[in-house]
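Field notebook, page 208. I keep forgetting to write these up properly, so this time I am using the form the group agreed on. The chain and the ligand, S-adenosylmethionine, are recorded exactly as supplied. Prediction of the bound pose follows.
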Amino acid sequence: MFKRSWFWDRLAKRYAGMPIPDQASYEAKLEKTRTFLRPDSRVLEFGCGTASTAILHAPHVALIHAIDYSPRMLEIARAKATAAGVSNLSFAQATLAELDSPPDSWDVILGMSILHLLPDRLQTLARVHELLKPGGLFISSTICIGDAAWQMRVLAPLLRALPLLPSIASLSLGQLKGELVRAGFKIEECWRPGANKAALIVARKRVR
Ligand SMILES: C[S@@+](CC[C@H](N)C(=O)[O-])C[C@H]1O[C@@H](n2cnc3c(N)ncnc32)[C@H](O)[C@@H]1O
């Protein structure tokens, strides 16, 4: 039977060994994110992959619950968390829609390198909004190829036509910010290290 996570399951081992493409920007994003974390923060990360980011943030918060739909990614994530000696990091195999969690229960939700991959991005933003406490923060890093050079914009639909690759949304940064605002968030910070780089957005859940 077709397994929805097959692409990431197959990639998991290689993904874990891949160097971070832009280490300086990654570290700057970790730093910026950390200024919004508190020792008592309850953090949820979706699409956590092999948990590289969760492991680095875990010492700065009360707990992180990290979810991903790929069992192979989670296998590696669990082994890395154990090797790092991180005890406040838990894992579950789930999408955000499937997650069994009451509304208004998280201080911070992280979605790193994931929003551009989701076919149901608007539902995801609504779900993030539902799960966050009032005033809680959604921190994401997203590739916005809608702003990329025309070659990339032309290539994207062609790549989408290949059933072997996950689809990447033709999203612009302005569009994503608009979607966040319409989903009930206030943009607190937005930083894109370069024209074709993923944008870090810190968005606060508005109290309606
Ligand atoms: C590009 S990787 C990013 C991993 C990690 N957040 C990082 O920054 O290294 C995308 C991850 O999202 C997961 N993923 C993709 N679609 C998902 C979905 N609908 N629900 C949960 N996880 C998903 C994949 O299994 C993969 O681990």
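OBSERVATIONS:
- The mean pLDDT is 93.
- The CA atoms of residues 52 and 140 lie 15 Å apart.
FOLLOW-UP: compare against the apo run.
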